[in-house]
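User: Some background: our group keeps a shared notebook of sequences we're curious about, and every so often someone picks one and asks for a predicted structure to add to the entry. Today it's my turn. The entry only has the sequence so far, pasted here. Could you supply the structure so I can complete it?
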Amino acid sequence: MKGYAMLKIGETGWIEKDRPVCGPIDAICRPLAVAICTSDIHTVYEGAIGDRHDMILGHECCAEVVEVGSEVKDFKPGDKVLVPAITPDWNSLEAQAGFSMHSGGMLAGWKFSNFKDGVFGEYFHVNDADGNLALMPEGMSLADACMLSDMVPTGFHAAEQADVQFGDTVLVIGIGPVGLMAVAGANLRGASRIIAVGTRPVCVEAAKKYGATDFISYKNGSISD
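Assistant: Of course. Here's the predicted structure to add to the notebook entry:
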């Protein structure tokens, strides 16, 4: 199969690789829609996670299931699925303790384009399919589904981790895609005042729609003043 890969720090290209093998609790999928994440840029051009050679990139997509393992109960070939960026091993000690992001080690729940080939290939492997896939709702667009893989849950998870409560004041530093979802998440959890730090007009307008009440420009000085 073909895949778009990090060849080394600072260099990408198309490569040929064997199609991944499906384990008994796993699935093999083919992407239907993919998105580039800033993490891919940091990985390739800044060496953010160290050097990687011939590693297929990408961790944002929705997909069609083409093969499932013998123990998979909830999915079958032909299903259209949401695929999260983070795919923990749910039977690991860390996941069982409530730290699924770190299953198997620090940040080891993030596998695609970190420890194993990502989704920018003709096929990709999903570990623990029953725990790491979700059926796409009928009628959902591929573009919307793709956004649910990483950007939306990352911002919502931030609001969840911060334990935003009714009436809280929340500061969101940076209102790119993930920051905008953090604004939306804080609003949904009941924050009464949401201060957004950012300057791009299109992002400011979007943040207003998602619930931001105040804005600070880092171009005007320290945001802590």
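Suggested note for the entry: The chain has seven helices and eleven strands. Residues 81 and 156 are 20 Å apart (CA to CA).
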